[in-house]
Amino acid sequence: MSTLVSRPSVDPWVLFDADEMSLPTADFLAACGRHYRDVGAALAVLDIESDCYPVVCLRAAQAEELTALAGRAGFTARSLGAEGGAVTHSGWGG
Fold first, then answer.
1. Consecutive sets of 10 residues in the chain, 94 residues long: mean pLDDT of each?
2. Three-state SS string across 5-20, please?
């Protein structure tokens, strides 16, 4: 448990250009995902068949595992800003 951290290893706000801060939500989340990938992290959205879509930050190496575990539970998880995991306004996954 001592190796767990509750914050990214890099301050995420320094990764963004000023114009990205005013993007629509779906585009902003995709940009977040791209920037997080640059530092070895991943941003993913979970579709838990609810009216909310939890967003999680994890190590990039664990993204496939998250997708598999979500599938085993009957849900989906998509990496934001990644190829094949594009965020859309309807359904949050492409």
1. 58 72 87 87 91 89 92 94 54 45
2. CCCCCCCHHHHCCHHH
Alpha helix locations (H) across 1-94? 25-38, 63-72
The phi and psi torsions of 64 (rounded to 5 degrees) equal -65, -40
- Token pair, residue 92, equals 């949050």
Q: Which helix (H) or strand (E) holds 22?
A: none
Q: Please answer whether residues 44 and 25 qualify as being in contact, where contact means their C-beta atoms are separated by less than 8 angstroms.
A: no
HSE-CB for 18 with a 13 A CA cutoff: 0
pLDDT at residue number 4: 54
Q: What's the whole-model pTM score?
A: 0.68
